[in-house]
């Protein structure tokens, strides 16, 4: 059985391994992604993130995250990181369901992801969850990327303040 728990600082030790399981053909890009996750400043922007784990042995099997990477919380970046087998099953669904609920609670109206073009499992995952492939991106000295976007129903009942506390409107 799989369960989710909030991310803890010690969980950073798990992220690179999970990224390498998700995208084994891109160790350099995974290391760059990992460094950016560690450098994210939660005092300046919202981040909600979780570890999916096996309740029998407490082994981490996935990571899910929403990050505010712009000026407002209306548009959030989403990450769902686990092996392709877990992505297509319970782990991917649990993480996505949690993140979608969090996005609604925060008041986001747009989710986006930038992924490696050759990562077919994550491509299929996002398309299956009503994201659109909106742009192909060329970054010098990196593999080609693709941008996925999904519009959400606007929420007028709750929003998150910059410090992460919830307020109602």
How do the helices and strands line up, and which of them pair or pack?
Blueprint: E1 2-6, H1 12-22, H2 27-39, E2 47-54, E3 60-68, E4 75-81, H3 84-87, H4 90-106, E5 110-116, H5 120-128, E6 132-137, E7 145-151, E8 158-160, E9 166-168
Parallel strand pairs: 4-5
Antiparallel strand pairs: 1-2, 2-3, 3-4, 5-7, 6-7, 8-9
Helix pairs in contact: 1-2
What's the CATH architecture name? 3-Layer(aba) Sandwich
Number of helical elements: 5
Number of strands: 9
Structural class, from secondary structure content? alpha+beta
Task: Note the main attributes of this structure.
single chain; 169 residues; alpha+beta; Aminopeptidase; seven-stranded mixed β-sheet; two-stranded antiparallel ribbon; 5 helices; disordered C terminus
Please characterize this protein's 3D structure.
By secondary structure, the protein is an alpha+beta fold. The chain is built from five helices and nine strands; from the N terminus they run E-H-H-E-E-E-H-H-E-H-E-E-E-E. It has helices at residues 12-22, 27-39, 84-87, 90-106, 120-128; strands spanning 2-6, 47-54, 60-68, 75-81, 110-116, 132-137, 145-151, 158-160, 166-168. Helix 1 (12-22) runs antiparallel to helix 2 (27-39). The N and C termini lie far apart (38 Å). The model is unreliable at 156-169 (pLDDT under 50).
Q: In brief, what are we looking at here?
A:
The protein is an alpha+beta fold and 169 residues long.
């Amino acid at each position: 059985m799989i369960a989710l728990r909030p991310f803890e600082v010690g969980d950073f030790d798990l992220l690179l391994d999970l990224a390498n399981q998700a995208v084994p053909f891109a160790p350099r890009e995974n290391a760059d992604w990992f460094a950016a996750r560690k450098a994210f400043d939660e005092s300046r922007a919202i981040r909600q993130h979780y570890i999916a784990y096996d309740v029998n042995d407490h082994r981490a099997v996935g990571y899910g995250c929403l990050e505010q990477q712009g000026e407002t919380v209306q548009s959030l970046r989403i990450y769902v990181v686990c092996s392709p087998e877990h992505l297509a099953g319970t782990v991917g669904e649990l993480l996505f369901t949690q993140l979608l609920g969090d996005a609604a609670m925060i008041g986001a109206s747009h989710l986006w992801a930038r992924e490696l073009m050759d990562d077919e499992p994550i491509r299929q995952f996002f398309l299956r969850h009503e994201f659109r492939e909106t742009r192909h991106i060329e970054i010098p000295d990196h593999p080609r990327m693709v941008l996925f976007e999904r519009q959400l129903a606007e929420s007028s009942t709750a929003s998150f303040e910059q410090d992460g506390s919830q307020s109602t409107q």
